[in-house]
């Protein structure tokens, strides 16, 4: 573990096959102003994380055939050791078949380097997933940004100004109720984060468990359901098959792309995704990358300002 936060560690990695660095890492950004993720004008991607080795900042840049990474802080070596996994080296799309669907075939053709990466870190994906429960995307993003700016730790090294690392499990657990309120987070979501924080050491073990066991471990915590677990494991475990059940828009997107249906529910979505088992999340990622959406007929969900309640 490095003790000098200014000391820089480096690694060059040459992936096998195509790699879209921005497309692969982009799913880890929680909103356009995420304090833990930044893209700088030179095209480099910056992430900062709370790793088992300590706080760390990672800068990733390069080409589809060669990636240059630099890292700073006590967690630098941990981040660089796991760089290939983060960029999808453990992802195996070889068994993926578009099953004759023209939209999916074209999405796959246009995104050959899109991989499912694995962070190996549960809490940094679990907390934003909890914040995203039953609220608009903008509300969740604003809450995440507010909480990290107020309670997160500064990113070590020459990270872009304003980058922050998620609070420790202890710090999540002791955020006062009025601070959650000011961030626009209601009592149910804040309570779920606090419960998860108190079990953080145990929940982090989900990153090395098979999906059924990992899902059972996470959903045993009150306030964490299958939607939140799937959103977490897609990122922490690089699970290419974890389906986000219970999402407001995803069933309609899948139904529209795979069957031309304007309205679908979870049951229909799962039925349509069954031929792609093993790659069901990959299908959803490809549809997202292609920006495919079903026509909307229902009114948009109106944000609720919990700060005024």
UniProtKB/TrEMBL annotation:
InterPro entries: Alkylbase_DNA_Glycosylase/TA, DNA_glycosylase
Gene3D superfamilies per the UniProt record, alphabetical: Hypothetical protein, domain 2 (1.10.340.30)
Coiled-coil features, chain-numbered ranges: none
UniProt keywords, alphabetically: DNA damage, DNA repair
Plastid in keyword set: no
Keyword Phosphoprotein attached: no
Signal peptide: none
Name of the protein described by the UniProt record: DNA-3-methyladenine glycosylase
């Amino acid at each position: 573990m490095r003790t000098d936060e200014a000391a820089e560690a480096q690694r060059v990695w040459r992936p096998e096959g195509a790699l879209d660095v921005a497309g692969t890492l982009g799913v880890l950004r929680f909103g356009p102003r995420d304090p833990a993720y930044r893209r700088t004008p030179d095209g480099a991607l910056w992430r900062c994380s709370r790793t088992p080795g300590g706080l760390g900042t990672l800068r990733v840049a390069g080409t589809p055939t060669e990636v240059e990474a630099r890292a700073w802080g006590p967690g630098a070596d941990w981040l660089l050791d796991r760089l290939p996994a983060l960029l999808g080296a453990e992802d195996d799309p070889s068994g993926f078949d578009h099953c004759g669907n023209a939209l999916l075939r074209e999405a796959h053709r246009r995104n050959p380097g899109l991989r499912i990466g694995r962070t190996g870190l549960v809490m940094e994906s679990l907390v934003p997933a909890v914040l995203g429960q039953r609220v608009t995307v903008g509300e969740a993003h604003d809450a995440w940004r507010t909480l990290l700016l107020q309670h997160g730790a500064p990113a070590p090294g020459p990270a872009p100004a304003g980058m922050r690392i998620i609070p420790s499990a202890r710090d999540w657990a002791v955020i006062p109720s009025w601070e959650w309120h000011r961030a626009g987070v209601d009592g149910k979501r804040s309570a779920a984060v606090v419960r998860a924080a108190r079990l953080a050491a145990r929940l982090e073990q989900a990153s090395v468990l098979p999906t059924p066991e990992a899902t059972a471990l996470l959903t045993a915590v009150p306030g964490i359901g299958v939607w939140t677990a799937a959103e977490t494991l897609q990122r922490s475990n690089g699970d290419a098959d974890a389906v986000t059940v219970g999402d407001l828009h995803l069933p309609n997107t899948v139904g529209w792309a795979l069957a031309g249906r304007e309205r679908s529910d979870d049951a229909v979505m799962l039925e349509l995704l069954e031929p792609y088992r093993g790659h069901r999340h990959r299908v959803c990622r490809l549809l997202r990358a292609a920006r495919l959406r079903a026509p909307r007929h229902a009114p948009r969900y109106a944000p609720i300002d919990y700060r005024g309640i």
